[in-house]
Write a structure and sequence with these properties.
By secondary structure, this protein is mostly helical. The protein folds into two domains: 1-61, no CATH class; 69-299, MetI-like fold (Orthogonal Bundle). It is built from 17 helices and two strands. It has helices at 3-15, 17-35, 53-56, 63-69, 72-92, 94-104, 109-120, 127-137, 144-151, 166-191, 195-203, 208-219, 221-233, 240-246, 252-255, 258-268, 272-299; strands spanning 46-47, 58-59. The protein has a two-stranded antiparallel ribbon with strand order 1-2. Helix 5 (72-92) packs across helix 10 (166-191), helix 7 runs antiparallel to helix 10 and helix 13 runs antiparallel to helix 17 (272-299). The longest helix is centred in the C-terminal third of the chain and has 28 residues, at 272-299. The radius of gyration is 25 Å and the shape is globular. InterPro entries: MetI-like, MetI-like_sf, UgpAE/MalFG_permease.
């Protein structure tokens, strides 16, 4: 590149300086809250002492990782985390897609906006409120679910403290809170599908279901694949606040996940190095899953993350 080209390129860059200035706050937040804390990951390889700090703490190498992999409790928590996320992926993931398809087919503008508002609303409720709603719905004494079960001769069930049903409660409550909000992405993708395709399909006599199956779903396939990749990358990350609000010692066997395990061990027992090792392991597995999902997506001809 000659001197003239360099000057021209610099001039073009400086002409958009307002855009770069707008970008600076976001970059600062990313640097401060995402990259600087990576330094703290070194705690996983040390016997961290609050008084001595990160630099003064003794280096112990892979000691905490060995303790982690030798712990039977860790494997139980690890399996719980995988199972709960797998259930959410299988049973909760399709709901926003179906909801978006249904909302898209509503032709009355006022009713359409009303339906969207109603489905988005639970997302703005905290898990404290959502857990209270489900505690009342599933109450073994006067909860509407157990009242209805009583009409068909089924004894009251303690859903919130029964290991057989606790994971289902987590999946259903998560679907209740997030499905409407998640459907926004799919609605936006549906809006981008060429309307002429639907007109051609109607001229050929295709029914609504066939239009959805052969036009809408293929049209948003890349978005669906992208969301699946993101969900796979978060396969070991449960909503900590949700589990904390719902679970109790009676369901630790099926409800204790990596997030709650780190919370109890790291803060409760002050084992900061050990809990950091758990988090670092979780991050490495998440990164591996994202890379694998990206490679599989590209292999089948879909757009990857990079």
């Amino acid at each position: 590149m000659n001197a003239g080209s360099k000057k021209s390129s610099l001039k073009e860059t400086l002409s958009d300086y307002q855009l770069y200035l707008m970008l600076l706050p976001a970059l600062a937040v990313l640097l401060i809250f995402k990259y600087v804390p990576i330094y703290g990951a070194s705690i996983a390889f040390k016997d961290y002492n609050l008084l001595e700090g990160v630099m003064g703490s003794k280096w112990v190498g892979l000691k905490h990782f060995q303790e982690l992999f030798q712990s039977e409790k860790f494997y139980s928590v690890f399996i719980n985390t995988l199972l709960i996320n797998f259930y959410k992926l299988v049973f909760q993931f399709p709901i926003p897609i179906i909801l978006a398809l249904m909302i898209n087919e509503i032709r009355h503008a006022v009713f359409k906006r009303f339906s969207q508002s109603i489905t988005y609303l639970p997302h703005f409720l905290s898990w404290v409120v959502v857990s209270a709603i489900f505690a009342n719905l599933l109450s073994p004494t006067n909860g509407i679910v157990n009242v209805l079960l009583g009409y068909i001769g089924i004894d009251p069930i303690m859903f919130m403290s029964d290991e057989r049903f606790f994971r289902a409660v987590l999946v259903v409550s998560s679907a209740f809170r997030e499905s409407g909000w998640s459907s926004i992405i799919y609605l936006a993708a549906i809006m981008a599908v060429d309307p002429q395709l639907y007109e051609a399909a109607r001229m050929d006599g295709a029914s609504k279901l066939r239009q959805i199956w052969h036009i809408t779903l293929p049209g948003i396939r890349s978005v669906i694949v992208f969301i699946i990749m993101m969900r796979l990358g978060a396969a070991l990350a449960n909503d900590l606040e949700q589990v904390l609000m719902f679970y109790s010692p009676m369901v630790y066997g099926v409800g204790d996940v990596l997030g709650t395990y780190v919370y109890r061990v790291g803060l409760g027992q002050m084992k900061y190095s050990f809990s950091t090792a758990v988090n670092l392991f979780q991050s490495v597995i998440g990164l591996t899953l994202i890379i694998a999902a990206n490679a599989i997506s590209k292999k089948f001809g879909e757009r990857g993350l990079w």
